[in-house]
Amino acid sequence: MSELEARNLSKDDVVILAVGGNGADFFKKRGFNVAYEYRGVSDVPDFMEVRDIVRMVTSMYDNEVYDELVIAYQHFASRISNEIEMEQILPVDTTKLNADSNEMSAEYDMNPSPEKIWKRSCLNMPKA
Fold it and tell me: CA 41 to CA 45: how far, in whole Å?
């Protein structure tokens, strides 16, 4: 079962924001709507390369252009095998935040709110 079938979605329900030419070409050949392409990114991008992409996707999410962001990428398993990995980035799944920890967690009252901290940290990054 494909990821789209598992989520009860069709190609028409999905908009692709492709980072890298291979990903953009892959989805275009299969008839997906590729709304954004960022080509020329290195194999191991540094902060400056991803800063504008992070700004764009968080702004689009905040403005409700889309309701979910899932990142899909190839994980190098061995010389003869790559595995497709998919992770939901937005909205943040708070049930998974402490899933790997055996330690007790505490709740904190944050001021400003976590949402304001997120916006400040992602959207107010220095420009190149």
Answer: 6
For the segment 113-125, what is each residue's pLDDT rounded down to a tens digit? 777 777 777 666 6
Tokens of 114: 């976590």
CATH fold group of domain 3-94+106-123: Pyruvate Kinase; Chain: A, domain 1 (3.40.1380)
Q: Residue 90 belongs to what H/E stretch?
A: strand 81-90
Which contiguous run of DSSP H or E holds residue 116?
helix 114-123
Nearest alpha carbon to residue 70 among 50, 53, 85:
85
SS3 73: strand
Tell the residue number behind the tokens 């689009």, with chain if given.
60
**If residue 45 lies in a helix (H) or strand (E), which one and from where to where?**
none
| pLDDT digits 0-9 by tens, 78-90 | 888 888 888 888 8
| Closest by CA position to 4, among listed 35, 23, 27, 38 | 27
Query: pTM of the prediction?
Result: 0.62
